[in-house]
């Protein structure tokens, strides 16, 4: 198999740098080019010293990355990717966007939640939104991939079997999610300043976070009807990881055993989603630095409410790892290539 040349636009951000780290050990890929605006001309290793002795790649401009790569990843703030996607399509490159510019099908949602509009509508018709475990049949050969949001991946995987079963009361779905601080990116802000977030814990953007319509888009597709839910994120003072604790009323009484079987059956062939044995409870540390999602299934028989707990690493399954999984699918590579990662014990 010939080596695929990959490039990263925005390689100096947290998600871009994580992508660089993972692509460097992908068996079928060479990291061919990386870009930055602020640090153009410096080496990636000057920005992130963990790359000293690993790569001499110099940060170039976005056009150089597109020129040198078969697959172009962008990991940029929202609203910048349409022109990049356009150039990639014109030059026959596969384009994978880690941001939100191609995630929402309905422009009105993008308008409402991001305050932005679509300028190149035909590009959006080409884009394929893909959580592989739910959408993988759509990805092969795609020209543009919209890589899903981090909270969205964690929460959608946690809800998919129950929503698809038709046994969920879709008017009563509550997602209580917590993310590590890398989720906010490398940019400096008071909220993520160490003394402000360490020893602290708080929700933010209560029922107003931009991932809400994306989760609803996924669940509506699974349910075959419009789903509206409550989503509350929290900032957790750890570097990586997301845990979503999800509460769903049932349309008729069930049991922990029945619910657990539903989840275990749904994900039985999935390498990257593990349903824990009944009685076990998800812990963030067991998915750190991996492309895995772990789910534990619980049932409150006093209220006939299902409680699902789902955990991922926001930098890997929530961003860079899932982007590689999508690249593997688009190119017909083994889906797990470069992603056989086991969580460190400490
Ligand atoms: N962190 C996470 O957990 C996740 C992030 N994502 C998405 O990935 C993308 C990047 O996020 P993240 O890595 O956290 O963010 P960072 O703030 O850490 O990085 C942002 C990157 O974008 C570049 N950049 C910033 N402004 C511009 C600009 N105006 N023009 C060109 N490049 C620019 C920066 O490069 P430089 O300053 O060197 O030019 C940097 O490489 C976002 O869309 C985010 O939503 C997706 C899932 C999870
Ligand atoms: C902790 C934190 O601030 N998290 C970010 C979400 C992470 C992210 O970058 O969002 P995407 O997955 O859409 O790219 C936030 O709440 O905006």
UniProtKB/TrEMBL annotation:
Xref: PROSITE patterns: ARGC
Location, primary (coarse class): cytoplasm
Active-site positions on this chain: 150
Pathway note: Amino-acid biosynthesis; L-arginine biosynthesis; N(2)-acetyl-L-ornithine from L-glutamate: step 3/4
Keywords: Amino-acid biosynthesis, Arginine biosynthesis, Cytoplasm, NADP, Oxidoreductase
Enzyme Commission numbers on file: 1.2.1.38
Molecular function (Gene Ontology), one example: NADP+ binding
Annotated catalysed reactions: N-acetyl-L-glutamate 5-semialdehyde + phosphate + NADP(+) = N-acetyl-L-glutamyl 5-phosphate + NADPH + H(+)
Annotated InterPro entries: AGPR (IPR050085), AGPR_AS (IPR023013), AGPR_dimerisation_dom (IPR058924), AGPR_type-1 (IPR000706), NAD(P)-bd_dom_sf (IPR036291), Semialdehyde_DH_NAD-bd (IPR000534)
GO biological process: L-arginine biosynthetic process
A GO CC term attached to the entry: cytoplasm
Start and end residues of each Semialdehyde dehydrogenase NAD-binding domain: 5-142
Record-linked PANTHER family: N-ACETYL-GAMMA-GLUTAMYL-PHOSPHATE REDUCTASE, CHLOROPLASTIC-RELATED, N-ACETYL-GAMMA-GLUTAMYL-PHOSPHATE REDUCTASE, CHLOROPLASTIC-RELATED-RELATED
Family: Belongs to the NAGSA dehydrogenase family. Type 1 subfamily.
Function field: Catalyzes the NADPH-dependent reduction of N-acetyl-5-glutamyl phosphate to yield N-acetyl-L-glutamate 5-semialdehyde.
Protein name as annotated: N-acetyl-gamma-glutamyl-phosphate reductase
